[in-house]
Amino acid sequence: MPNYTTADIRNIAILGNALSGKTSLVEALLQEAGAIHHRGLVEKGTTVSDHTEEEKRHGRSLYAAITHCDHEGRHINMIDTPGHGDFAGQAIESFAAVETAAVVISASAGIEPGARRMMERAADRGLCRMIIVNKIDHEGVNLDQLLRDIRDAFGKECLPINLPAGGGTSVVDCFFTPSGQSDIGSVESAHQALVEQVVEVDEKLLEIYLQQGDVKPEQLHDPFEKALREGHLIPICFTCARHHADPMKSAGICELLTVFARLAPSPLEGNPTRFVRGDDFAHLLNASPDPNRHVLAHVFDVSIDPFIGKLCGFRVHQGTIRKETQLLVGDPKHGESKKPFKVNHLFKYQGKEHVEIDAAIPGDIAAVAKIDDIHQDCVLHDHHDEDRIRLLPLPYPEPMFGLAISAKNRGDEQKIADALHRILEEDPTFKVVRDAGTHETVIHGLGELHLRVILERMKSRYHLEVNTKPPKVGYRETITAKADGHHRHKKQTGGAGQFGEVYLRVEPLARGQGFEYVDDTFGGSIPRQFIPAIEKGVRQVIETGAIAGYPMQDIRVSVYDGKYHDVDSKEIAFVTAGRKAFIDAVKKARPTLLEPCVSIEVTIPQDHVGSITGDLAGKRGRIQGAEMLSNDLTVIRAIVPLSEVMNYQNQLKSVTGGQGSFTMELSHYDPVPGQLQQQIIAQYKPHAEED
User: Of these four, 252, 600, 656, 670, which has the most CB atoms within 10 Å of its CB?
Assistant: First the structure.
């Protein structure tokens, strides 16, 4: 058993924009805590977190890295996450394993879009949040203004728990033992603001404070945790992970470790992790961090090493996992695994190193290796009644950037399929679609860099190369009116024939409602055994389209009448009749094409605002707003049809000279303009069908 308890564990995700210094911060924390002897450097590829060949080659974090250290009797698990928007999925997956989201902001860059998005997503997930202002020693930074910007952006509940001093070479405490001089404000005033914010969540303590004028630090612990849970307090910590003149020097690192150890919530204090049984989102379940109850653990991280095999990182939410434990795999995506597996080896991650342990207690993060049945988002358990329990789904962005790929070398098709399957297991925001209409294999990611890294991985790890081209746009078909459809399928070929007749009605549903199938027959007009066959025929059209060869959505189909023959009626007859009756109804129901529209955020230098807004407007974009950042950059937000920004990376690079960046997520589907819709439909050549 470990030499710490659940109450001693602190689980913290290190989040924020690219280049804010997250990896250097984790490296400094690990060294300060004695977990590593020598501090590595990102640019030399020697850090604990950025240990893969891809990360060393790109000089940035591409995957979430799990690390740990001990400080003041506390066991601190830290997950260093990528900051580039293309790898947001790797950051979001860490939400499933932590109580605290620590968002890092570079003092020299100010509040960037990545920090804003992570603050919002962490709040939506119910995580306790803190802000770490890094690089406080850089020349020209205005920390006083940055503090005001943070409070304007994220609320008055953002309060400093320490303050910079000595030109960013040190920090002074504002909470435990407030004293000393700060560069940007009064330490005593900061202490008073913190105490007043905390006591507001505890009526008894507030009364004591009003009577005595102060309270003891130990009295503040429980209300402090409550304030964190409720989002009533977001502490701000100032640090310098690496001095600009001497990378081996830092400031505020020991103080930050102390904040993690003393003030970050333990698994007993954070907001409970929510589970659901099956698809019953109306009744959420809480795990109990009791070491003696049956096991409940969630797999949030999967990596596949060509030499070691599959490594699966999980957070224990309930019970204790020991070596030789027999566990079951509850997997909502791949089906339930009834066959138990034995935990032969149990590990703690330290970057690429794996430290073997005897047991993992509630709240801890551990890993197992070489268990093929385990997939990302699985729930590991030892109780058959827990088969259908799964974690409340995480808010992953929809991958919208696509590339159609094909094998460069003949005979590599199956190898490519196998490699893509392995990558799918590792990355929650990577998607592979085989388009039956175009016979294209299309890979989807969050951006150009995301897919470029995946293609590099296929080449370096699996020695596979592919050809790429822009994919077909993922239009959708729907209807805009009610209509009836009918088809009578009758076929006689000698001997037993085929007969089925179907009357059905279609009507549009609200956008995003999908597909509904309703049996409105009565009096036995169609025997019960043929109703599913009609649905099968309808679904064939839903998948392949009726007017342009694209999937259909937002349609209700009601079968209300039909005829059958005692001898000739068969399932195949009603499949055909259902399919053709549905096509007949759709053509009368004012069908239309929908196009995917994305919400895009473009970050550019101020000088290029006019040209970019004009360019987006020319792409049928609707500008939603613009915001100036503190580093002479502007963020433009817009809604744009995906078809207009399929190659936006190159266009933006050309306009801004390589100084712009963007992220995009699926927003909604809108009707395609009439002339463009006619062109798309005119190109559609449905397969001829025999009646």
Answer: 252
